[in-house]
Amino acid sequence: MWKLILKRVLLMIPQLLLMTLLIFAIAKLMPGDPFTGRFSPQLDLSELARLRKEAGLDDPWYVQYFRWIGNALHGHFGDSYVLQKPVVTLMGERLGNTIVLSLFTTVFLYLFGIPMAVASAKNEGKFIDRFWLTFNSITYGVPALVIFLFVLFLFGYTLQWFPTSGSVNIDAEGFVGIWLSKIYHVILPSVTIAALSTVGIFTYLRTGLLDNRNQDFVRTARAKGVPEKQIFWKHNFRNSMLPIAQNFGFQIVAIFSGSIFVEQIFNYPGMGLLYYSSISTRDYAVITALMLFYGFLSLVGAVLSDIILAWVDPRVRIS
Amino acid sequence: MIIGKNLLDAQDVSVQFRIDGEWLTAIDKVDLSVKPGEVLALVGESGSGKSTFATAVMGLHSNTQARVTGSIVLDGHQIVDASEKEMQELRGVKAGMIFQDPLSALNPLMKIGDQIIEAMSVHDVYPKDQWNDRTIQLLKEVGITKPERVAQQFPHELSGGMRQRVMIAMAIANEPDLIIADEPTTALDVTIQSQILDLIKDIQEKKNAGVLLITHDLGVVAEMADSVAVMYAGQIVENGSVEDVFTNPLHPYTRSLLRANPSEDTIGDDLYVIPGTVPSLAAMDHTKDLFLRRVPWMQKEAEETIPDELVEAKPGHFVRGTAWKTFKFPDEKKGVKK
User: Fold this and answer.
1) Hey, are the CB atoms on A225 and B107 less than 8 Å from each other?
2) pTM given for the model
């Protein structure tokens, strides 16, 4: 098991290198550079060229690349031109918020998706099953934006049960107070995202439960005289959870990157909002740093998925 | 209910499946019995209803998709109309079942030991403090050399033969009087097959258990069984001791099967092939001798309606229909039996 984890983590190094090359290439391909549009038209062009040279932008690409990597390894991602702060500081402020939002979303997602699928599979073809099938078709089919706005309008403006923006009340005091306020702020977005994203878990688990019902090992358990309830949880459910468990790492990544969109709508100051605004203002240093962050997250998600699968499925552990 | 001397007593058993809203008969009025210590082989082609019968004995047919009628008495307990709870108590205790493919029949996520213990944990035959020791002892009994190690392993870590040994250990965990083996060697290598058969025979003799052996391998029947029932299209066509049926086969189907089985006498000859296939459930008209449709020279007899009951041609040797009296292979000389 430890060997497998080590192997998987080591495998991340070449993947990371390849990713940095790609991100660097994309950044270089983007039109303009940090000085574009930042000086008045009266500025002497030779002065601009001097600044460019000073910033190392005239160096060959590989020199620039390794300088960037070297800086990144030391935690330096440059400064945001728009917000005039180091990128690391900007990310640090928002990372916590996004983590809170994503964790709550993840918990709600599994809390909704799993019982939904179990209820459906146990009542195949009956009303409950059709209800959840329809529910998932709708949440999958209707654009999330529409539902987000509706939820925001209903629970935020009309009923005023939940705040419509921000991550914490300005007057919250004390550790407990601040956290309660933070949780209060993430409930509406996290519950909404979770409720709209169950389709994957629901479909995988429901199909798995229905398929495994006729598997040979389930028949064996029945032939041993195992009661139906025990067969369902110990044999059917456990085996059906394999794809769900395996997908966990990717699911978390999807939720993190999904926040780009959600935070914009709920005006929640997380990484997603930062990413969104940095793209619209061409804040290159922030964009590349965030691309690196999200890319790294995907790699971690893949490793996490592999480790979880190895942990729950003995067949993977060996090979 | 009725307590007979038979371990398993099936009378007039029919099984129907619901397919596209229609009830189709897969097994028609089957009578079979297994005495303690007897090995009964149920033979026939794929699709003849052997496994359907075994599944009915275990009460494993879905009660919405299948309908079982008649009477199946297992060790004094009527199974046909038993509740799910009653069946749970009987399964594994009165009858243990060994399946065809031991890889798919074992839960891939559970350790071998845990799967055997589960069989004991759902019944009150052995107290909890004996489960662990008994698991090791069972694994030893089925010829596994490192039982402690195997108990901690997962199914995919074992060879096919080992897995089938584990299945057998699981089936006999609660010392059932009847062992149902549904093609126990079909998924195994030829070299392993005889080992597994020897093991089943060995256990059967040691425990004086009854065995219902389902197979399409006539060699297995000759080696293992005391009596044999030949099944075709959901009906028993011939039933008797292995000796009677093998030396003096009566029904055209039995005779064709034996003729299609390669033996020392037929070395160098073309292998006999029974033309056609078992009819689909919808095409089964159980009032006729269905096999005769596959005998080109007996098409007239194939249309005759025959009685349900088997005829006792010789004491203890039963055969269905009347065609056996006149049936001959085209190359067969008059009076010479193959």
Assistant:
1) no
2) 0.81
